[in-house]
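Hi all, posting the design record for the shared folder.

TITLE: backbone redesign
STEP: 1 of 1
STRUCTURE INPUT:
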């Protein structure tokens, strides 16, 4: 199945089908679990700051790696741009759960509901990314389902952890 059939632009597909996007969703879920003893406002701040720090660290490490791999011939600006572009999935993937946490922080929805909803949305998005990634190279439903379940399991484990720790 092509990106066109999935109604995904090539640029968005590249960003969302990246290890950084999947890693970003798992990171956000983990931070929600860790910060879930407080309010959704506290979780929002914790998650946002953590995503920014991890993104910056990822860009920095990627830039250094590109410079080292090319003995500096790639150039600092080009290496920095390429690394930021590669890592952008981490930030973009964090937007839906951050918006949900913002709904809780502004009291549009209950704190607890915001925390749970953000975790559930992350898990659903992980499943979708697992499905879509395999749909790019296989027309068979079984590997798609397996991929979706495995990818979603990362979020599911963190939901289970939240349920055990906070209840």
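Okay, here is what came back for every position:
SEQUENCE:
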């Amino acid at each position: 199945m092509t990106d066109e059939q999935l109604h995904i632009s090539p640029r968005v597909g590249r960003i969302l089908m990246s290890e950084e996007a999947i890693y970003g969703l798992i990171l956000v879920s983990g931070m929600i679990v860790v910060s879930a003893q407080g309010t959704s406002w506290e979780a929002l701040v914790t998650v946002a700051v953590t995503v920014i720090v991890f993104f910056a660290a990822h860009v920095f490490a990627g830039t250094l790696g590109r410079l080292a791999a090319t003995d500096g011939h790639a150039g600092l600006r080009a290496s920095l741009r390429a690394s930021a572009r590669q890592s952008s999935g981490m930030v973009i993937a964090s937007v839906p759960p951050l918006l949900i946490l913002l709904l809780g922080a502004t009291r549009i929805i209950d704190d607890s509901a915001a925390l749970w909803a953000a975790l559930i949305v992350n898990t659903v998005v992980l499943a979708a990314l697992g499905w879509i990634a395999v749909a790019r190279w296989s027309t068979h439903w079984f590997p798609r389902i397996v991929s979706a379940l495995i990818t979603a399991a990362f979020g599911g484990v963190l939901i289970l952890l939240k349920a055990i720790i906070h209840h």
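COMMENT: The mean pLDDT is 89.
Let me know if anyone wants the other runs.
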